[in-house]
Each structure stands twice: as C-alpha cells, then as structure tokens.
Amino acid sequence: MGKTIIDKIWEKHVVHQEEGEPDLIYIDLHLVHEVTSPQAFSGLRMKKRRVRQPERTFATMDHNVPTVNRYKIDDPVALNQMTTLEKNCLEFGIPLAGMDSPEQGIVHVIGPELGLTQPGMTIVCGDSHTSTHGALGAIAFGIGTSEVEHVLATQTLWQTKPKTLKIEINGQLRKGVTSKDVILYILSKHGVNFGQGHVIEYCGEVIKRMSMEERMTICNMSIEGGARAGLISPDETTFSYLEGRKHTPKGEAFKKTVMQWRELASDDDAGFDRTIMIDANVITPMVSWGTNPSMTSGIKDSIPYLKDCKNELEQKSLERAIDYMGLKEGQKIADIEIQHVFIGSCTNSRLEDLRQAAEMVKGKNVHPTVRALVVPGSQQVKKEAESEGLDVIFQKAGFEWRESGCSMCLSMNNDIVPSGERCASTSNRNFEGRQGTGARTHLVSPVMAAAAALYGRFVDVSEKVSVEAL
Ligand SMILES: CC(C)[C@H](C(=O)O)[C@@H](O)C(=O)O
Ligand code: SF4
Fold it and tell me: Nearest 5°: phi and psi at 363?
C-alpha cells in the first residue's frame, strides 16, 4: 500500500520515537504573533535559554493592530503585547514584520505570500488557523503557549502521530459557489467534531482546479471541523504560486526543489484511516445562521425547526443559537437583514477574494443602513489591490478601505460589531461574542458578503453574480 503525504512528511521529521509515546518531531518553520508569544519568551528568559533557530522563526503583529490609525492603540493590553513582541524579537534575534513593515499582515496570509511556507514542511504557530498553510502541502498546525516555548527553545515538538482523513470533492461547482461555500457545506453536513485526531487531505477534481488562494480558504477552516490540520498535495498550481517569492529558492535551485516537492503527493494507492466523498454539484451559496460554523444552510433554505431536531440536546442548542442570533425557526435565510459587512480575515482577505467582491460591487452602492469594511490580509495584498484600483471601486461604492490585520474577525482591536447587530463576515468563527459582546455573525463568502452590503440582506449570488466575477 502506498503512502499519504501526511505519512511522508511525518516520517522525514521524526527525531525520536518510542512505542506508546508521542513522537518528537522537527519543526521547519515557527510563526509567531503578539498574542500567544509573551509568556513563551518570558519562560525562555527565566530559564536562561536562547532561541534554537531564529532563522526558522518569523514574527508578525496581526490580532491587535489598528486598521485605521496605526498609532492609535487604545487598549493597554494590546499595546503591551505589541511592544513586548518587538522587544522579544530584538533580544532573541527573530525577524519581525512589525506594524510599519511592508511585509506585515495576518500571519497565515504572509507565510505563503513571502514563500516562507513551502511543501513538505512542518509548520507551527500559536494560532489555531495555522492549518491554512497546509494548502501548500505542509503539515501545519496550531500549538499552545507552552509548546511555543518548547519550539523556540528546541525547534522540536512532542506530537502523537495524527490519523488520516481523505476528503475527495468531485463534480463541478455551480455559478456563485466558491471554496468558502465548499468548506461551509462540509461543516454543515459533518459537524464541528468530525475531524478530531485527524489531519485532513483534501483532493479530487474540484481541489485540483482550485487556485492556491481558494485552497487556503478550505484548509483554513479544517480546524472548525475539529481536525488537527488540513492539507493538499502540492502540484503545478502550488509550484507556480511559489516561484519567485521572497523566501523560495531561485533559478536552478528552485527547479531541483520542485523535483523533491513532486515526490510528496499522496500515492494513488495510499491508505487513509477514513474517507469522505463530496459531490460539488449540490453545493449552493452558503450562509451560517447559528453560533458554530456547522449551523449553516444554503441561501435558498430556512432556519431549521425545533421539531425536526434529532434529540433534546440538538433542540436545546438550536433554541439557544437562534435566540442569541435573534432569528426565528423557519425564517428564510434570504430574509435576514444585516447592518455590517466584514470582508477580511485569514480565511478570505487575499487578492482573489477582494477581486471577486469588487466585481460584485463595481458601479453600485452600499445599502444606506449598512456599514461595510474591506480589510486586506497583508500590506502586500493591500498594495496589489490598490495597483488594480480595487480600493477605488470599494470606496466609491461606500466601503471603508483599511490597513491589514485580523480586524473584525475577533474583538481584539477597535473593529467591533455592536451588541445585537448583525454582520455578514468572510471570517471563520461565529461563536457568541466573537465580533463583540452580543454581536451576531453570519459566515459567508466574499461575493455573498459584497452582495449583502449592496442589498442589506443575503441574496442568491448565483443569480446576481456576473460570470466574470468567478
Ligand atoms: C488569538 C489566537 C490564539 C486565536 C486562535 O488561536 O485561533 C485567534 O487567532 C482566533 O482566531 O481565535
Ligand atoms: S484573522 Fe481571525 S481567525 Fe485568522 S488569525 Fe486573525 S483572529 Fe484568528
């Protein structure tokens, strides 16, 4: 039986193995941000340890950074986390894309963008959405702060080898259906725990046809299904995405490296612990209506009825969710009115996401009762979008055009949704209070968010979207 990409990468990285114990694995790249690193550095300092491989470590600031005036940080905790990261990077010799750097951005956007993220790597970060980097064919996962300290000190990590889950997506995506809808659909069918203990490999015709950016959106939300990580075997799309990026090998060295990367893909006869098959033809534009990402339905559907719940537990959680969300059972998704739109986050803030949203809003106006934000995932995305005039399209339509950061994805900076108000958001989490105390989040694709900004409610983008937009 052949090997999966997960087995291949894992085997190359095991430093120490003992029966019945977790493996000690080597970590190729350690990404660091301001929220989960301060205690880890304090620990090193206390134990008088150095960072083992500063050149395999890279830091940025994203969660706390203001997206309007970079220098107006009201929250003392946020300010402290940012100045502490600066000091730590200086002291321990770690490269930092700080607030003024042209490389600054959400850690999961800049890793691939700078070519730091590469096929075959093991990548960790004190952040759950590290799974995003798996789109390039790496095993990439989030770790806790004590593990951050361990990796800083040793460049290794104790990990139990995960089980493998193949998700094969075949067929043809309908008009108006994006990779965000695919992952929301998977979550709506399989729940928020189906991936527990597994690394998911996404494959099939639909994945093959996707761009790198679309693949990143899918891998990003693997964690929302409970998986340890999600990845995609690298192919020509991956290699051409990486060619010429700042940290990828150049010239002949690149060609040689690509030859090694080609070996990584799962063998045709590789055995997985589990397999899920998805038919892309049935997926419609999706909108989350509840308080976890699996509480999601198609745009033509309605909020479920309590009487249709399988058991009392499910009924209770549905009741609580629709109460928090201020919705009614049986209410049509297309009748939900929104007051805020957030296009951003590590799920959907890359250039292609912004292009799709811009195509939808071009020459139109944001609904008078809606406040709409576009927050590019990085300074580089912002610059590229501006060179294409996307900022002008958005601003003319009535959107605010911001500096890069996590922004409204979570309420750790000034961008929050007021209590009781509703936001169409391209982010990945819709838990109670995620975008602000009492805020109500609906997870959608960039085109759906853009359309919601124009109409003040959710619309069937498969009817409204122009063919060129997708
Ligand atoms: C702040 C950080 C620890 C957190 C995470 O790990 O995911 C954040 O990025 C999030 O999306 O909730
Ligand atoms: S954009 Fe959101 S999900 Fe991504 S790292 Fe930032 S806070 Fe976490």
Answer: 75, 5
Strand order in the sheet with 29-32: 96-97, 57-60, 29-32, 122-125, 139-142
Helices (H), 191-281: 205-209, 212-220, 236-242, 251-262
C-alpha atoms less than 13 angstroms from C-alpha of 75 in its C-beta half-sphere: 13
Pairing state between β 96-97 and 57-60: parallel
**Any ligand 1 atom below 6 A from CB of 351:** no
Rounded Cα gap, residues 284 and 29, in angstroms:
37
Which residue type does 332 have?
K
- For 73-101, the pLDDT digits (tens) are 989 999 999 999 999 999 999 999 999 99
* Ramachandran angles phi, psi of 12, nearest 5°: -70, -15
Ligand 2 centre and the CA of 398: distance in Å?
Answer: 25
Task: Please name each of the domains of the chain with its CATH number.
Answer: 5-160 (3.30.499.10), 288-469 (3.30.499.10)
Q: What is the ipTM of this complex?
A: 0.99
3-state secondary structure (DSSP) of residue 441? strand
What is the pTM (predicted TM-score) of this model? 0.97
Over its C-alpha atoms, the chain yields an Rg (Å, rounded) of: 21
423 is in an annotated binding site: no
Residue found by looking up tokens 């639909």 in the block: 206
For the purposes of burial, counting CB atoms within 10 Å of the CB of 363, is it exposed (0-12), middle (13-18) or buried (19 or more)? Answer: exposed
CB 181 within 8 A of CB 286: yes
Number of H helices, E strands in the chain: 16, 19
| Measured distance CA(262)–CA(297) in Å, rounded | 38
Mean pLDDT, the chain, as a whole number? 97
From residue 364, give the alpha-carbon distance in Å to each of 320, 357, 361, 371, 450: 37, 12, 5, 15, 10
Q: Whole-angstrom Cα distance, residue 288 to residue 10?
A: 35
106 lines ligand 1 (CB under 6 A): no
Detail the DSSP E strand segments found in 363-421.
Answer: 371-374, 400-401
| 89 marked among binding-site residues | no
Ligand 2: which of 141, 345, 404 to mutate, most ligand atoms within 8 Å of CB?
Answer: 345
Segment 270-293, tens digit of pLDDT: 999 999 999 999 999 999 999 999
